[in-house]
Amino acid sequence: MAKIVIIGSSNTDMVAKTKRMPGPGETVVGGTFGMVAGGKGANQAVCAARLGCDTAFVCCVGDDVFGEKALAGFKAEGLDISRAKTVKGVSSGVALIIVDEGAENSIVVAPGANDALTPEVVDEAADLIKEADILLVQFEIPMESVERAIEIAHEAGTKVVVNPAPANVLSKKALSMTDVIVPNQYEAVQILGKDKDSLTSPADTAAELKALGVGAVVITLGSKGVFVSGPEGDASVPARKVKAVDTTGAGDCFTASMVCALSEGKSLKEAADFGVRASALSVTEFGAQPSMPTRKEVEDFL
Questions:
Q1: pLDDT tens digits, residue range 55-86?
Q2: Residue 252 among the catalytic residues
Q3: Least buried of 84, 99, 116, 237, by fewest C-beta within 10 Å?
Q4: Following DSSP, what letter does each residue of 97-138 receive, concatenated?
Q5: Span 138-151, mean pLDDT?
């Protein structure tokens, strides 16, 4: 079975559902509260494991109840967490999330132990990265650690998939070592060193990224689906229409599902379509990790 290594964040999501987002200085009363496991790296790792992929997850958690619960949850999902670390005297990562009745969300993240995922921690997992088929990283850990992981994978011939979220700048050297990048439109222009007013067509944006040495580009477009630019050319993958309950974690679900499909030998377009189906299912449930679908659910969703 193909091996996927995911290096990234682990958070506890504290989610308040309300009719509308509060404005600056405003208190909105009414709604429900839930506390669920989250973090971009953890969401993607759990998603991959539920889809049946052999997945290792490298993360840092604090020595608190949130960290203990997170590690127990990863074990229950069947993840290899042999290189996960508990950091003494530091809180685990926490995300404060507001979800309105239109299923849109607003998020504030307190990274906590995620900031302790240093290049040295990545080096300790180098053997896992070298033996893997695919490395998947995101940007909720220190950028120097992201770049170190990319370097190790590239030198070993492990395929590198980068989900540049939340938006940040990746060095040109790291971009040239990236086999597949999976941004939304705004993340794509930031990677290119531009502002959001510089949005161009997905095809033009993808071409600019590929000119920097990126092997393939998959741009997520929300309700408009996904634009794919890879070895087989450019293609659009339409979104699936569902009634959204909570969009938290949908991008993570898409990315991890696509990576699973790639690890099984599917083309980039086929993998993107699998990811679209999985992420459509994820928004019909509440919470990030609880909403990640199983393989059967995705395959039954035509």
A1: 999 999 999 999 999 999 999 999 999 999 99
A2: yes
A3: 116
A4: EEE-TTS-EEEEEE-GGGGG--HHHHHHTHHHHHH-SEEEE-
A5: 98
pLDDT per position as a tens digit, 15-62: 898 999 999 999 999 889 989 899 999 999 999 999 999 999 999 999
Name which of 101, 112, 105 is nearest 11 in CA terms: 112
Other C-beta atoms closer than 10 Å to the C-beta of 201 total 11
User: What are the phi and psi torsion angles at 164 (to 5°)?
Assistant: -80, 65
Helix, strand, or coil (residue 168): coil
Tokens for 286, please give them: 């509440």
Single pTM value for the model: 0.91
Classified as helix, coil or strand, 73 is helix
Q: Which of 63, 252, 273, 300 is catalytic?
A: 252
| Torsion-angle region of 73 (φ positive above 0: left; ψ -120 to 50: alpha; else: beta) | alpha
